[in-house]
Design brief:
- It is built from 16 helices and 14 strands.
- It has a nine-stranded mixed β-sheet with strand order 2-1-8-10-9-11-14-12-13, sandwiched between helices. A five-stranded mixed β-sheet has the order 3-7-6-5-4, sandwiched between helices.
- α1 runs antiparallel to α2 and α13 packs across α16.
- The longest helix has 18 residues.
- The protein is elongated and about 80 Å long.
């Protein structure tokens, strides 16, 4: 899941097909009607009413018609846990890397084995980055500050991914000699422009507190002030884990065509404090190598073919990529494993309408996979997509919380979810009693995951997620905290409603 602070309006509010078309027609009516005679005006009004009533009929009819009796699908959470194990064993599945390709291959094979049709791995070339190597240290300098101290015993070396993390689209800084060491300037919270000016040609360290400015804004500001490197000091996020560094992406700001070519990293709270204390007598030594350029990212897709209506389809998806500094057991291998097991459960269901299941690459860097697929399938979405269901971090850590939130852009979905939850409490009391449920109507769900491209195209969407993942975007997001029972509950809620829509 992307950090909301770095979203640049990726998704518009869900307007709905009928709603947006009505608004377009109403904007045009006044000037057109003014030129008509009275009889023609009456006829035009009748025609307009008919058109307004019929706009978006196909999709709206599916959502407004009475659903067939709801029933809970099955879900084998032990088998889903096995998928979780297999995928996390690959290691971090950074988009555009061989590891992402291995993950996509595994997903596609599970789709085939489950019985899905038209299984394919599509690739899209997008601007990506990869961290090739990274070393960070604070090196002592002599009294005059011109040369490193003869003794290097007090140099402080920091551990990659544990004590520092490279940020999205960082530039490189290869170390060749002490002349590449950088003086470190404390930028405070970033509000003092004179501090930024003093950091020109040097490295700046900025404290990121509760009101977090997006990585993108800070990255480009560092370039504009001529900084040679920018260090984010985590002082607010992840208190439960000791404020360890978090991987975050960046996006091109309006008017920009390329990212700044300067190193960009985040350090833990304790490391940042130490760096500031040492900045008077030490310099920052960086040896960072990154790749920034086009890479192919993957989208895996397969269908359960509808027996009666193959024009309209229901879609379920999750992103299979992870940040580079962790295995992403919760974000979002939990969602990917859920989609794989849903494929097994839905493949033999013989729906009337087609069901499409997909996993996306490129989510962590900017929803690139789902956006690219949507852009390549505009007509398919416009004419056929009834509903999109998103699974991102749909895991609950019961030692910390018990909430499952399902945000939906349609009121009818809230009622259906409530029925399914009550059904689950009756049929699977030991499982469904573990959690507190929050089905919520939200016509403008935040666009920080892969529902956004479909929501922006006016399609109904639902986004289900859990709670308690303190390890978000860190090296600690491993399988040791995974409880697959929450995957079952989230899949049974959204998957059962998806099947009901497909059976209408």
């Amino acid at each position: 899941m992307r950090d909301a602070a770095d979203d640049q309006g990726a998704a518009e509010g869900v307007l709905g097909v009928a709603g947006s078309a009505r608004r377009r027609l109403l904007r045009r009516l006044p000037r057109r009607l003014a030129s008509l005679s009275r009889p023609a005006l009456v006829i035009a009004c009748i025609i307009a009413l008919v058109v307004l009533a019929g706009v978006g009929y196909g999709v709206q009819k599916v959502l407004e018609n009475q659903l067939p009796p709801l029933h809970l699908i099955s879900f084998d959470y032990e088998r889903a846990y096995h998928d979780e194990q297999r995928l996390t064993s690959i290691g971090p599945r950074m988009s555009g890397t061989d590891a992402e390709g291995q993950g996509a291959d595994y997903i596609a094979q599970q789709f085939v084995d489950a019985g899905l049709e038209e299984v394919e791995i599509l690739t899209y070339d997008v601007l990506m980055y990869e961290v090739l190597s990274a070393e960070v240290s604070m090196v002592p300098y002599g009294p005059a500050g011109f040369f490193p101290a003869l003794s290097s015993g007090t140099a402080r070396h920091y551990e990659h991914t544990v004590e520092f993390v490279i940020q999205g689209y960082s530039g490189s800084h290869r170390w060749g000699s002490f002349r590449d060491d950088l003086e470190l300037i404390d930028l405070g919270d970033g509000s003092d422009e004179s501090a930024w000016q003093r950091a020109s040609g040097k490295a700046g360290i900025i404290a990121q507190g509760g009101e977090v400015t997006s990585n993108s804004v800070l990255f480009f500001k560092a370039r504009d002030f001529g900084l040679s490197a920018l260090v984010l000091h985590n002082i607010a996020r992840g208190e439960e884990l000791g404020f360890i560094p978090i991987s975050k992406t960046a996006v091109l700001l309006p008017g920009e065509s390329q990212f700044p070519d300067l190193p960009f990293l985040m350090v833990s709270k304790s490391v940042g404090e130490e760096m500031k204390q040492l900045s008077g007598s030490h310099r920052l030594r960086l040896d960072i190598s990154t790749f920034v350029g086009e890479r192919p990212i993957r989208v895996v897709s397969g269908i359960v073919r509808g027996s009666q209506d193959q024009e309209h389809f229901i879609m379920l998806g999750a992103h299979h990529d992870t940040v580079y500094n962790g295995n992403g057991a919760v974000d979002d291998t939990s969602g990917t494993s859920t989609i794989i097991e849903l494929a097994r459960q839905l493949a033999p269901s013989h729906p009337k309408r087609t069901i499409r299941l997909s996993t996306w690459g490129g989510e962590e860097e900017g929803l690139y996979g789902s956006n690219a697929w949507a852009a390549a399938h505009e007509d398919l979405i416009a004419n056929g997509l009834v509903y999109y269901f998103n699974f991102d971090m749909n895991h609950v850590d019961l030692e910390r919380c018990d909430e499952i939130t399902a945000e939906t852009s349609t009121n009818a979905t809230v009622d259906a979810y409530r029925q399914l939850i009550e059904m689950g409490r009756r049929e699977h009391p030991d499982l469904f009693s573990l959690y507190t449920y929050k089905p919520e109507y939200n016509p403008d769900i935040p666009g920080n995951s892969d529902h956004a491209p479909f929501q922006a195209r006016g399609r109904p969407v639902s986004f289900i997620y859990g709670c308690g993942s303190f390890e978000y975007h860190t090296y600690k997001d491993g399988i040791d905290r995974i409880d697959p029972r929450s995957l079952a509950v989230t899949a049974m809620i959204q998957g059962s409603y998806a099947l009901a829509l497909a059976q209408q």
